[in-house]
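Incident review: delayed structure delivery

Summary: a single-chain prediction request sat in the queue longer than the usual turnaround. Root cause was a stuck worker, restarted by the on-call engineer. No data loss occurred. The affected request and its eventual output are reproduced below so the record is complete for anyone auditing the incident later.

Affected input:
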Amino acid sequence: MNSLNRNSKKMTRFLFIFYLIMFIWIIVFKFSFTFQNVPSLRSVNWVPFAGTAVRNNQLDYSEVLNNVLIFIPFGLYMNMLKPEWNFLKKMTPIVLVSLAFEGLQYIFAIGATDITDLLTNTLGGVLGIVICLLSQKFFKSHSIKILNTVAMTGTLGISCLFVFLLLANA
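Output delivered after worker restart:
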């Protein structure tokens, strides 16, 4: 592995760790800065696309879309950090993390545990893996550099949001 690849891999690891920190803050702590502000809710929905994803008797597409979008980077990172793994092996951490978050929400009564979330989170991770695979097909050896640049841009955006929310709640 040459120096450029090692540096790209280090950058990818750093971005993945930062993503995970923000990811936990968004999903588990619901953008809250104190435990008192985390919503207290404990419910379970085993019917896909019913219950918590329904508002006013209609499917809340924004919640579904947000669940997909927040897991796309997870799939990208899994593919970039573990290129030797097969597709199913890359999906496993995505499903397990989503399942863990749903379980934590129930255990700590900090959100609705919902099969729809598990499905849409997994879809987002799968889309991330597919985007990465397509990127590698079209951009070849430049793929990781391009994806790291996109990830860095997203990381800066999330960082700005975090600082803004921190200042607004101070």
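Verification: The first strand starts at residue 41 and ends at 45.
Action items: add queue-age alerting; document worker restart procedure.
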